[in-house]
Amino acid sequence: MASVVLLRTVLLISFFGSAIASAKTEKLVLRMERDAGGFHEQTSLIYEPKIVKIVRNSNFNCYAEDSVALGLIEKALDGDDKIDRGLVEQVIKRRNMQSDSSRRTEALGSSVRYFVDRADMTDDRATVRLLQRIFEKHCSQTGENNRKMVRGAVASLDGSKAEPRLRIREYINSKEKRSVIVSPKQGQCKKLPESRDDLLVMSCRVLEYGRGVLKAK
After folding, report:
1. What stretches in the chain show pLDDT beneath 70?
2. What is the rounded distance in angstroms from the CA atom of residue 69 to the CA atom of residue 211?
3. Quick check: 47 and 85 in contact, CB under 8 A?
4. What is the largest CA-CA distance in the chain?
5. Is there a contact between 216 and 164 (Cβ–Cβ < 8 Å)?
6. Neighbour count for residue 63 (Cβ, 10 Å)
7. DSSP letters of 109-131?
8. Helix or strand or coil: residue 75?
9. Do 200 and 161 touch, CB atoms closer than 8 A?
10. Contact 139, 59 (CB under 8 A)
11. What is the DSSP letter of 199?
């Protein structure tokens, strides 16, 4: 519940002053979400003039990661980010020039929903593909040194797949607040069907920040 509150708080703050009616906004919010058995999974990218905020309580759109960072992360806006934002702003401009009846939509049959600011883009196949590519760029990157962990945690599976241990390091303003190592049972980990003889894939609770999909060999 706390992870959902964190996400909603950040998103509500970011939504003020951000509107789909403008192709050039101070803030641009991209969001993908789905319901997973009562747990509302979300990942958001909030583009501001000089930074990108990454807000997520799950890495559900990524393949199982060696480590996953959940919470609120900031990074400096780089050239790739500017290009991605520009592509999305072109989508907004094109959408604003079309009437509702002229927009070509196609349901994807997916439980994942995609938004640009407040506009639901889920049935716009071309836009969804663009958003998927942008979100995938941020897989396996949210724990890198050039990111500032404003508030969140990084989780990983230590040890072998036969005897894994869940390691969680919590950060506030990029400073480690605490580090814990617990058993999969204590971490509320669940073995996932993607596991193989040579690979263990688990979904684990990461404190109050959400759930992460992790792997161990």
Report:
1. 1-25, 98-110, 140-145
2. 10
3. yes
4. 58
5. yes
6. 12
7. --S-EEEETTEE-TT-HHHHHHH
8. strand
9. yes
10. yes
11. B
Burial 35-57 (b: 16+ CB within 10 A, else e): eeeebbbbbbbbbeeeebbbbbb
Residues counted in the chain: 217
- β pairing state of 119-120 and 113-116: antiparallel
Ramachandran bin of 18, using left for φ above 0, alpha for ψ from -120 to 50, beta for the remaining angles: beta
DSSP character for 106?
-
Q: What is the pLDDT of residue 161?
A: 84
Token couple for 46: 């909030």
Tokens of 99: 């009437």
* pTM: predicted TM-score of the whole model, two decimal places: 0.81
Confirm if 44 and 210 have CB atoms less than 8 A apart. Answer: no
DSSP SS3 for 159: coil
104-151 pLDDT per residue, tens: 544 444 689 999 999 999 999 999 999 999 999 988 665 556 789 999
d(CA 63, CA 131): 16
Amino acid at 209: Y
What is the C-alpha to C-alpha distance for residues 197 and 189, in angstroms, rounded to an integer? 18
What is the C-alpha separation between 213 and 112, in angstroms, rounded? 17
Quick check: 18 and 25 in contact, CB under 8 A? yes
| 3-class DSSP assignment, residue 14 | helix
Place of tokens 């617990």: 182
